[in-house]
Design a protein that fits this description.
The chain is an alpha+beta fold. The chain has helices at residues 2-7, 9-29, 37-53, 58-83, 190-209, 214-223, 231-239, 250-266, 271-288, 293-311, 317-331, 335-338, 340-354, 356-362, 372-393, 401-408, 412-428, 434-455, 467-486, and strands spanning 96-101, 106-107, 111-123, 126-129, 134-139, 149-153, 157-158, 172-175, 180-183, 396-398, 460-462. The strands form two sheets. Strands 1, 2, 3, 4, 5, 6, 7, 8 and 9 form a nine-stranded mixed β-sheet that branches. Helix 7 (231-239) packs across helix 18 and helix 9 (271-288) runs antiparallel to helix 10. Mean pLDDT is 78; it is low at 161-167, 491-495 and 501-508.
């Protein structure tokens, strides 16, 4: 078996990516920074030298390269831990602060949450740098945008007891009701400013065409913007097991690629050029949605499928999923342990590929019309694959979820299609988008009603397993996949037919 893997470039790449992911996973169990990272890098380099010296002996070379990638993964995780640092002690009392808005403001009915960067506090007659980002909660009427300079006073509190990555999430939280804009907007990043302006324009158009909460739900389906959804509606989706529809994922990325490729085919664009245009569109869509883990994963897999078209190779979904995970973990290794969206996204896609076809073939009681059998099989597959993580993280699994998904998922394409059409027409002429907005509103109201009704169901599994039990559940999933892969199809008949009997009549 090793010989077949070693002589195939694609299989060798898959083996090395799995070795890298295994190295990240083993170090994620214990995040203690180790001084042995340099030794691991040296050992990896030595393994690479030995692999080069192995020559044409493919099996030793594959094993040595896999060991090198495993050790490089350990070194990469140590480097990520070295970049993280615990936040320093906050200034005492309630000093005065100044800072720049470094992200898109999230406005609610009673307050506005802003991410502040380049924060200074007044200490002993001068302003001293704070060093970390601050999550500032201000009044709802604050007219602040990306790059605005604010001044406020408050007492800082730690966001979490864990490590804070510089340039990522805020390390401190602060309630500054007296916050005020004291300076013009700074040009921190023109691309980010243009992105936030475009998202703000979409939010304004959606608010003019649809009422709440349908307007915010449409933005959640299209670009993953859930900031305007009320807490009761978010809780209804969570209790009904349908909260995944609020996160932009592979379905949205697939539709974007299909629309771009179809448009290129209509204007007679060559296949290779269309693949490049679709890849650029996927990159822009991932940036528009804020770089969520599920979107980046789906965009990476879509980009690999387009690369297969350019290179004339067959697309292998499990290999693309492994490559996407390896690239994302190489950029940020702490995603594997600390990003719930990353964990659930990859677990759900693994369930779709490994369990989806088997479940779909066995659900013969459901009709194939309208894709009902396939939807049910994929929903059960994704739910089963994410079951250990959902129980470990949230401690609750709504058993009404598969049935609620069967009702809601067929409505999602119509809501997205009519909603996107209404926004596109409304941007040109406001009245032109009203008919499509009315049709989108019907689908959105049906989705909200189905989720709210399903959230009232008392059926649910309340249990919170520990790490050992979670690992055991994943092991059981592996055994189930092996059993389904080895099982032979059987035909069940309610009535057994008797073989025909030949009657021979001889003439006397």
């Amino acid at each position: 078996m090793l010989e077949r893997v070693a002589v195939s470039p694609s299989r060798t790449f898959l083996a090395l990516a799995l070795a890298f992911i295994a190295g990240i996973g083993t170090h994620a169990i214990d995040e203690t920074p180790r001084r042995a990272a340099a030794i691991a890098v040296l050992a990896a380099l030595a393994a690479l030298l030995l692999a080069a010296a192995a020559g044409r002996r493919t099996r030793p070379r594959l094993l040595l390269l896999s060991a090198a990638f495993f050790l490089f993964a350990w070194a990469r995780y140590d480097a990520g831990l070295a970049e993280a640092r615990p936040p320093a002690d906050p200034p005492a009392g309630t000093p005065a602060f100044t800072g720049l808005v470094a992200d898109e403001p999230r406005s609610g009915p009673t307050d506005t949450i802003l991410v502040m960067d380049r924060v200074f506090f007044y200490d002993g007659g001068r302003y001293a740098p704070l060093g970390e980002r601050v999550s500032l909660t201000a009044g709802a009427g604050l007219a602040a945008g990306y790059g605005s300079r604010l001044a406020w006073t408050c007492r800082l509190g730690a966001v979490s007891a864990g490590l804070a990555l510089p340039g990522r999430q805020p390390a401190w939280s602060c309630y500054g009701r007296d916050a005020a804009v004291v300076g013009p907007a700074a040009r921190l990043d023109r691309w980010k400013a243009a992105l936030f302006a475009f998202r703000s324009r979409l939010r304004e158009l959606s608010g003019r065409l649809l009422p709440e909460p349908e307007s915010s739900l449409l933005l959640g389906l299209l670009i993953g913007d859930r900031s305007g959804l009320p807490d009761r509606l978010v809780a209804a989706f969570r209790l009904s097991g349908t909260s995944h529809i609020l996160a932009v994922s592979g379905y949205n990325v697939t539709k974007v690629a299909e629309i771009v490729l179809t448009a290129c085919a209509c204007v007679a664009v060559r296949r290779r050029t269309a693949a490049v245009v679709a890849a650029a569109s996927l990159t822009g869509f991932a940036v528009l949605t804020g770089g969520q883990a599920s979107v980046v994963r789906a965009a990476a897999m879509g980009g690999l499928s387009l690369l297969a078209i350019l290179c004339g190779r067959r697309y292998n979904a499990p290999a693309a999923l492994t490559a996407a995970a390896a690239v994302m973990l190489a950029l940020d290794p702490r995603l594997l342990r600390h990003d719930v969206g990353f964990q659930l996204s990859f677990a759900a896609v693994c369930g779709l590929h490994f369990f989806g076809p088997a479940f779909t073939r066995r659900l013969t009681l459901l009709p194939e019309a309208g894709g009902l059998r396939r939807t049910a099989g994929e929903t059960l597959a994704a739910t089963l694959a994410t079951l250990p993580l959902i129980l470990c993280i949230f401690g609750y699994l709504p058993l009404i979820g598969p049935l609620a998904n069967l009702v809601i998922l067929p409505l999602i394409p119509w809501a997205m299609c009519f909603g996107a059409l209404s926004l596109a027409l409304g941007a040109l002429l406001p009245a032109a988008g009203l008919p499509a907005a009315w049709l989108a509103g019907l689908s959105l109201r049906a989705i909200i009603g189905a989720a709210s009704l399903a959230s009232l169901s008392p059926l649910g599994l309340t249990i919170k397993p520990g790490p050992a039990a979670t690992a055991a559940l994943f092991g059981w999933l592996g055994l189930l996949w092996y059993a389904l892969a080895r099982a032979r199809p059987t035909t069940v008949r309610l009535f057994r037919k008797r073989p025909p009997v030949d009657i021979i009549i001889e003439d006397p």
